[in-house]
Amino acid sequence: MRITRSMLAGYGQSLDRREKLRAMAFPAQRAFLDDRALFKAELCTRRAGKSFGIGIDIAETHERYPGDSSIYIGLTRETARLVMWKDILDEIDARVGIGWQLNRQEQSYTHPNGAVTYFRGLDSSPKEMQKTLGQKIRRIWIDEAQGFTIDLRQLVYQKLKPALADLRGQLSLHGTPGDFIGPQFAPDGFTPGRHLFFAVTKQEGLFPSESREGGWSVTRRSTLDNPHMRVQFLEQIAEIERDRPLFKETPQFVRDYLGQWAVASNRLVYRYGAVRNGIEESAVPMSRIKAWVIGVDFGYDDPTAFAVGGWADYDPTLYIVRAYKRPRMTLTAVADELRLLQADFPGARIVVDGAVKQAVEELKMRERLPLITAQKAGKHEFIQMMNSDLIEGKVKVVADACVALTDEYQALVWDDRTMVPKELASCDNHLCDGALYLWRDARNFIVREAPKRKTIEDEMAAIVAREDREGRAASVGEDDGDGDGEVWEDA
Fold first, then answer.
1. Which of 209, 267, 307, 435 has the fewest CB atoms within 10 Å, i.e. is most exposed?
2. What CATH number is given to the structural domain containing 313?
3. 117: buried, middle or exposed (CB in 10 Å: 19+, 13-18, 0-12)?
4. pLDDT at position 118, please?
5. Do 294 and 423 share a domain, yes or no?
6. Strands (E), 29-183
7. Which residues contact 240 (CB under 8 A, 6 or more apart)?
């Protein structure tokens, strides 16, 4: 191909625009733009320059790959348009001189070199979305990923990833921490997995039993990294510390100002607090435990859950010392597991899910297990009663031995789409149910007053009191000697 002067001029102008685009990005934005991983994600606080960074990325992609197609996906077509068009892409065009052409009907921006980005929302028609995905796609941006309540895993891995294959394209997730963390169902329709954006970006220490989603390059960015908003952000934090210090304890502050995932406590089903209710195994008074209860929630495709707890004399606390769950357990496997637990916790009562009556009766008859059926009625009311005990610290959970239970406590939320209280169906609650059966059968609330330990002072006081009583009795019992049998007392 013969290179002409106009081609050289066009290439030089493109390099000039790319330099201007680079200059517009601050260092933290540039670090994300330079990441060439196939799948990448950025977790930001509010006003950290997330959307403007996407706009720069769109412009750079157009400059680097003439004629290629890309897709920006928002929650809706309307939000995609409002977030990106006027305040970001038009602003970039005015400052850099790209010359984009906006097609309002097909919702796209086209570069003079033929590169185009389509703007789609989850409310786009299936036909429109499929038409877009039928092309070879260079780049896909998914904005406000924390707000996607659809199966984001299926969207990314099954629908979008194949469209990137021809050009070895790139897909990125962008968002702020939310309060919806799943779980959702993974692409195979069986294996449960948390909300994809959460699984990719969750902070260390949150749900330690679960590792982060593999195969993703993750960037975290704070508003403090944005030189255009740093001062305002610090002023807001100072105002909160001065006038609303308690706001710093809320999930909203943790999400918006610290950039960490946190579920709003009013959405959580159980009021478990790691500091208030967590305990080390060495702190459990094992030698004084009076009785044990094993709570069991049956499942097959869903796991079977086991929770063990007990209580001691003169102590109002229920100690949950072991909790775990296993999938695809047969009735024989469940019976064997219960016998092992009975060996570890002699005399334990076994309270089981009463919904699977056939399985319960089979275990009682064939395996000779002394099962007690838990009642399902009034579940919401009993959850609220257990929450009172959790809030008062009357339920302690051995954190190291009950990680799966505490993970469920911190993720199980109410379904706010229903008129009656109902747990969100996509969230795991198997161990929560097992622990609830255990709590309902426990008798830690029947507390006798502990015998008072006597001190030396108590013993001395008792001796003095006894001698005083004996002396008074001897004095009162003396006969006056006049033969009438009457006694006399000193005045």
1. 209
2. 3.30.420.280
3. buried
4. 95
5. yes
6. 39-44, 69-74, 101-103, 108-110, 116-121, 137-142, 170-175
7. 247, 248, 253, 257
Three-state DSSP at 192 gives strand
Alpha-carbon gap, residue 20 to 128, rounded angstroms: 34
Residues found in the chain: 491
Same domain? 370 vs 467 = no
Rounded Cα distance between 282 and 36, Å, is: 48
Dist. CA 340–CA 345, nearest whole Å: 9
Total domains present in the chain: 3
If asked whether residues 159 and 34 sit together in one domain, one would say yes
Parallel/antiparallel/unpaired status of strands 318-326 and 304-312? antiparallel
Instruction: For residue 187, give the amino acid letter.
Output: P
Residue 235 placed within a domain: no
Could you tell me which residues come within 8 angstroms of residue 207 by beta carbon, excluding any fewer than 6 positions away?
194, 407, 410, 411
**Which pLDDT value is given to residue 477?**
53
66 preceded by a cis bond (ω within 30 of 0): no
Q: Is residue 139 part of a domain?
A: yes
- CA 327, CA 303: separation in Å to the nearest integer? 4
Are 169 and 294 in a shared domain?
no
Residue 255, pLDDT score: 86
Which stretches of the chain score pLDDT less than 50? 1, 3, 7-8, 184-192, 480, 485-491
- Measured between alpha carbons, how far is 286 from 289 in angstroms, rounded to an integer? 5
DSSP-assigned letter for residue 289: E
Whether 135 and 105 share a structural domain: yes
- CATH value at residue 104: 3.40.50.300
- Cβ neighbors of 242 (< 8 A, separation 6 or more) are none
Tell me the CA end-to-end span of the chain in Å, nearest whole number. 135
Q: What is the CA radius of gyration of the chain?
A: 34
Contact 306, 323 (CB under 8 A): yes
Same domain, 435 and 460: no
Secondary structure element (H or E) that encloses residue 396, with its range:
strand 395-398
- DSSP result, 340-378: HHHHHSTT-EEEEETT-HHHHHHHHHHS---EEEEP-TT
Contact (CB, 8 A) for 141 and 72: yes
Q: Per residue in 129-150, is it b (16+ CB within 10 Å) or e — as a string?
A: beebbebebbbbbbbbbbebee
